[in-house]
Amino acid sequence: MPNVSGEPPSKPLSSVGVVTSLAKVPDGYYVVAQTTDGSDADLWKDGLFKSKVTRYLCFTRETGRDVVVDLKLIDVKDVLPEGFTPVEETLDTKEAATRKRRLCVKLSPHAAAETAVFDIQIVAKSRYHLVNYTCIGEINNMGVWYLKGDVLQRRSSPAASDAPPSAERRTAEKSDYERQSSGSYATTALHDVPFAVSERFYQRPEQFHYSFSAERSIAV
């Protein structure tokens, strides 16, 4: 079913191509076999003469280094727009992809892309417009529309975020051990303990004077 809701799919397009047959679509590719109103979306067919030659637009969203950031349709005699690559051959047979018009694709590294193309639909001429889609022109009396959206970049914090949970647990256990070894736990145990000689020794204080200096040094 065509995606006409205006809500972009979760992944942008990573490649766009053309195939000669609906039975020869490469793995991972989605073929635009019909227009939004259910008509045949053959990009090659002649309106006057029935032809055995067919061409269908296809695309993939499989994750790769690049994403599709723009599309253009130009006449075969037009100068190729800067930064664009024409779709010249079919993916399945390496024959001419289109006639009279050329579909041009602009790619960008995923990490550098702020917006990208998320969907492509083909609309029968003068039927209706797709909400949130942009028309790049007509081919074989059909409009080619694409949907753009923002590219969500994966942002990670420095090295700490890359550490596995087991490493974090080991770090925490190590910190606990170091605190115990350093005496910080002893400080808690001796906190608020009064340091004084038992009253039963007060009868002869000159023989039982004790400063508690060792204990006080731990508690500080």
Structure description:
The protein has 3 helices and 9 strands. The protein is an alpha+beta fold and 220 residues long. The strands form 3 sheets. It has a 3-stranded antiparallel beta sheet, with no helix packed on it. Strand 8 and strand 9 form a beta hairpin. The termini are far apart.
Summarize the structure.
With 220 residues, the chain is of the alpha+beta class.
Q: How many beta-strand runs?
A: 9
Give the assembly state of these chains: single chain
Helix content: 10-25%
Give the DSSP E fraction (strand runs of 2 or more residues).
25-35%
Radius of gyration: 36 Å
What is the H/E string?
EEEEEEEEEHHH
Write the layout of secondary structure elements.
Layout: E1 15-19, E2 29-31, E3 56-60, E4 66-75, E5 85-86, E6 101-109, E7 115-124, E8 133-139, E9 142-150, H1 165-182, H2 184-190, H3 213-219
Antiparallel strand pairs: 1-3, 2-3, 4-6, 5-6, 7-9, 8-9
Annotation keywords:
about 220 residues, 3 helices, about 25% strand
